[in-house]
Here is the input.
Amino acid sequence: MIGLKQEWFPAQVPPKPSGQFAHIVMLRVTESYPLFQTDGELNTARVSAGVANPAPMTRLTLFKRKQTTPERLVGRELLRRYGFISAESVETSDKRQTDDNGLPLDEYNVRFCQWTPDAIVYGYAIGDTGSERSKVLSDTGFSLTPYDDSHEAFTLNAPYESGTMSQRGDVTSRINEQDHVVPQVIFPSVVTARDLTLPLFKYVVNNVLRTKRYGAQTTRTGRVDNRILAIVLCDGEIFSNLKFTQRLYDALEARAAISAPDPVNPAVAEAVAAELIPALLAEDGVVVNQLLLGAELDAALRAFVDETSSEESMKAMLEAAFASSKQYHDAWLIKTKGKK
Here is the structure.
C-alpha cells in the first residue's frame, strides 16, 4: 500500500501482544434502510449528545458483531472464490482436513480451518478444536444523530401471486411493522488491527472496503458505505467509537451543521472528522508512528484499489495473507498443541 510505512508491521505475527497497532478510522454511512436489531427491535443506547453538550440523547447502536461478521464473510467469500478454501459443506462429524482437491475444509461457525487468514485475523472458538483470539478489535458504533431522526417504521406485507393480500376470499395476516434505520445515518467507527503483518492488514482493509451490506435481511437492504478517513500506526489503542461520535457531534453542532430532523451531510462530517482526528490522538497519549489521512490517504487507497482490481493481483494479495497466517499457525499453534 503506497505511502504506508511497511517497516511498522511485524515480519510475522508474534505469539504474544507486541503493541503494533494499525487503526482504520472511518464513517459508516447508511445508503438504504438497514436493520441493526436484536429480538426484533432496533438497538439503542441512552448517552450524552456530546462532550461539550452533555444533554442525554438516545442513539442507534451498531453492535460489534454486526460490523465484523459481514466483513469477515466477505473475506471468506474471496478466499473461496480464488481457491484458498473449499466450497464444500462440512459436517461436524467429518474428520477430514481437506477436500478431494486438497483445499482446506472450512465452514463458518461449524468448523474453522486454523491456518487461514480468516481464522488468524478474526479468531475462532469451536468446541474442542481450540481457539484463537481475534486480532481485529472493534466496539459498538453509535449513530451521530438521535434515534428519533434516524429511524422510520415501515409496514411490510407478503402478497399472493395475484399481487393482492387476499385469495379465494381469505385475507392474509402476513402484515408486519418494522423499524428501519434511514439512509444517510452516520456511525463513526474505529477498527483496530493488532500485531498483524502487512499482508494480513491489507486483507482487513480489503474486507472493509468491499463490504457493502450490514444488518438483517442483507439481500434486500442494508447498504452501508465505509468511508475511511485515516489509518493510524501507533503503540496502543486510540479513542473509542462513542468518544469519536460525541466529539464529532460537538464540532458539527458548533458549525450549525446539525439541523434535526434533516440528515447530516456526509461530506461535511468527513471534513470535520478529519480535522478532529489529530487532536483526539494527542489526547490519547499514544506514540503515533504514522498518521495517514487527507491527500496521502486518498492516494494510498486508490493505489490499493488498483492493486486489487484484477484477478491476478487479488489472488496475489490473498496468497500473501494466506502464507502469513500459515506461518503463524505452523510456528505457534502446532507447537502449543504438541506440548499438551
Summary: DSSP finds eight helices and 16 strands in the chain. The mean pLDDT is 91.
